[in-house]
Amino acid sequence: MSKQELEVIDRGAACCPGLAAAPLDEERAAELAKLFKALGDPVRLRLMSMIASRGEGGEVCVCDLTPAFELSQPTISHHLKLLRQAGLIDCERRGTWVYYWVLPGVLDRIAAFLITPQTTGATT
């Protein structure tokens, strides 16, 4: 087995500068605020986590989400609707049930924004 050095390509840097890279313009701030507002509720944050934990391309049935909460099904549906409107998730109805998944790249965009550059010699 040979050992090779692989070049790390920072995919997020070119399109989505991080929080510490430069001040946000008005349009980008509004876009990110919509995402963070949707995630700012504990129920929606848990729902997002449950959906995202299915992995890339994974999906989850609303029938698997609802029992995890002491909330009515219409309330869960409302929270899921807000996550969809924010552009975090999408869904598809299949018969009686609706299946949800995280939109590709959305978590990477949020993470790229929050990452701050590490300075040489910095400690954690």
Characterization of this structure:
- With 124 residues, the chain is an alpha+beta fold.
- It has six helices and three strands.
- It has a three-stranded antiparallel β-sheet.
- A hairpin with a 2-residue loop joins strand 2 (89-94) and strand 3.
- Helix 3 (42-52) packs across helix 5 (73-85).
- The longest helix is centred in the first third of the chain and has 14 residues, at 26-39.
- The radius of gyration is 18 Å and the shape is elongated.
Q: What keywords describe this structure?
A:
alpha+beta, 124 residues, 45% helix
List the helices and strands and how they pair.
Blueprint (H helix, E strand, L loop, with lengths): L10 H5 L10 H14 L2 H11 L7 E2 H4 L7 H13 L3 E6 L2 E6 L3 H9 L10
Antiparallel strand pairs: 1-3, 2-3
Summarize the structure.
The protein has 6 helices and 3 strands; from the N terminus they run H-H-H-E-H-H-E-E-H. By secondary structure, it is of the alpha+beta class. The longest helix is centred in the first third of the chain and has 14 residues.
